[in-house]
Amino acid sequence: MNLVPISALEDARLDVYRMVRDRDMAGRANAFMVEGLVALEAMIDHGRYHPSSVLVADRRLEGVRSVLERLPDTVPVYVVPYDVMVQVVGFKIHRGLLATGQRAAPLDAAALLSQLPKDEPATVLVLEGLTDADNVGASFRNAAAFGAAAVLMDKSCCDPLYRKAIRVSVGHALGLPFARHGTTVQTLEALKAANFTPVALALSPTAKPLHDFKPPKPARVALIVGTEGSGLTPQTLQACPQHLIIPMAERVDSLNVATSAAIALHHLWTQTHLS
User: Fold this and answer.
1) Please, is 175 exposed, middle or buried when counting C-beta atoms within 10 Å of its C-beta (0-12, 13-18, 19+)?
2) 167 φ/ψ sector (left φ>0, alpha ψ -120 to 50, else beta)
3) From residue 183, how far is each of 39, 157, 187, 189 by CA, in Å?
4) Residues linked to residue 34 through DSSP beta bridges, in sequence order
5) What whole-number distance in Å separates Cα of residue 61 and Cα of residue 41?
């Protein structure tokens, strides 16, 4: 473990961690940041991304030492007094731990789908227009829980490697393959070429109850969900002939998008694994 004690607020090695919230909004070029021990463990366990450095408050060091010992010696672990960490990051960071990582080369939907096993059962979650980090993070967590092979997003979706999205996903955004590119209609074309059956969750007149949907054999299904409020675009609905709806009490017409996705993913998972 490569511990590097730092006490000076102005130390240039801390620059990547300065004003974290502001840099979340502005982006970090090819880098991203994770917050907390759970997210760091997920980065290590999944192995798709590798920490470049870690920043930990001195009072948290002993509590996270067992995880930090799993890092290669090439990864510096900057240990700073808690008050210095607060001044560097720009807010009271209760978890007392941050780490930076480097993104992999971005993929489009077709390239990602080409990496999945062909003609085998698989579920893919497709997100359209989800700009809220909580919803994106929760969607990744749900997708991982119910065995989705990947998450595909249009370019308007929130970055799943945004710090808050990673935290809400409980680190699954670091493990589940994803592509964030183009439009959902373009993604649907790639899905059909890869032998996936697209189904949309939508409040449309032609929508059928979710519980009546039986996946084809082999069960290669792409579940498409849209942003709360406006839902899926007309272009997406037109390109996706099968629409499903989750039956619910009369006075409620919809659920949070991540909750809806979880219910539908669970249905697909049970149809594939328990039937």
Assistant:
1) middle
2) alpha
3) 29, 10, 6, 10
4) 99
5) 15
- Report which DSSP code applies to 141: H
Looking at the domain covering 109-273, what would its CATH class be?
alpha beta
d(CA 235, CA 180) in angstroms, rounded, equals: 18
Question: What pLDDT score does 27 carry?
Answer: 61
| CATH, domain range 2-102 | 3.30.1330.30
Q: pLDDT-based confidence at 218, cuts 50/70/90? A: confident
Residues of the chain with CATH 3.40.1280.10: 109-273
Mind giving me the DSSP string for 178-240? EEE-S-HHHHHHHHHHTT-EEEEE---TT-EEGGG----SS-EEEEEEEBTTTBS-HHHHHH-
DSSP string, 94-120: TT-EEEEEEPPPP--HHHHHHTSPTTS
26: confidence class by pLDDT, cuts 50, 70, 90:
low
- Kindly report, as residue ranges, where domains of CATH 3.30.1330.30 are found in the chain: 2-102
- Three-state secondary structure call for residue 78: strand
Q: Report the distance separating Cα 167 and Cα 173, nearest Å.
A: 9
Question: Tokens 């890869």 — which residue?
Answer: 194
User: For residues 14 and 80, is the Cβ–Cβ distance under 8 A?
Assistant: yes
Alpha helix stretches (DSSP H) within 28-72 = 37-46, 61-68
Assigned token pair, 125: 């979650």
